[in-house]
User: What shape does this take?
Amino acid sequence: MSNPVLIEVTRGPLVESHHTGAIAVVTPAGAAVLTLGDVRRPIFPRSSIKAFQCLPLIESGAADRFEFGDAEIALACASHTGSERHATLACQMLEGMGLAEDALRCGAHMPLGSSAMKALIRSGREPGPRHNNCSGKHAGMLATALHLGEGLDDYCEPSHPVQQRVHQVLSELTGLPLGRDVMGFDGCSVPNWAMPLESIARLFARLVARTGMPATRRNAVDRILKACWAEPELVAGPGRADTVVMRRLPGRVFIKTGAEGVYAGGFPELGLGFALKIDDGTTRASAGAVMALVERVLPAARGLMARKVLKSWRGIEVGEIRTAPAFEKALDRLETLTQASA
Assistant: This one.
């Protein structure tokens, strides 16, 4: 099944490039409200599932033991830009556990944020694990292992109890076995399991609707969502869709990006979850697609991000990044359905 074009890139009067992909919007029971493209093909959710990877941190009691508040929990769910605040908070989480930065097994890379990257270069320092966009998630995993008396050196391994708990959370909430045949490793070296796009959308529908889970898990979910809405800058960074949307609409939408063109999230008021994947993995297309989706479902979101204009080096407008006709028609249908039920 060929996926439709979701995003077009124009130059003058012509479409110069385009991005194909798939999207699913479903209820907690898995009923499809909108599907476009192949939503049954397994894809890796990548960092979009960090809120679920964070659940054991709360449920185990580790977050309480180390007195993690909204900021620390938001960072544990983050794909951050490596700003000074992000990096410092990651180190503070470790210090509170009596650990040093080298306990992190996520690896080091330059900050994802251009300002943070330039500042680090100007300082003459090398990037460390604290600058890795997943450093908060790894600090949270270390906290869980330390709290439960488990090994710290191998917490990234699939056989480690930390990763086994994550696997159990995902399996329970998706109803999928998630075996080794669909397991890969994320860029930060922890396991990541491929699952159909429609299953990822349902996962987020259940998250924001808090359905099909015991009271203890509902409380943990509430704490995670509250933290991300309270500290959206820590979840991503300035100008990034996750931060922009959740800062403006706390409590109304939760969204989280993943590498290789993935975005997922949900609308608590409507009890709907969504997931999308851009086939070629480009962020310009996934961010454009998720903003178009959010703006159609929530009128209050319109105008959150400016029209994406392409300019020449002299500042002359030469094209734009826009939603493709097939995607526009699907969004029209979704808007009619969601506004009727609002």
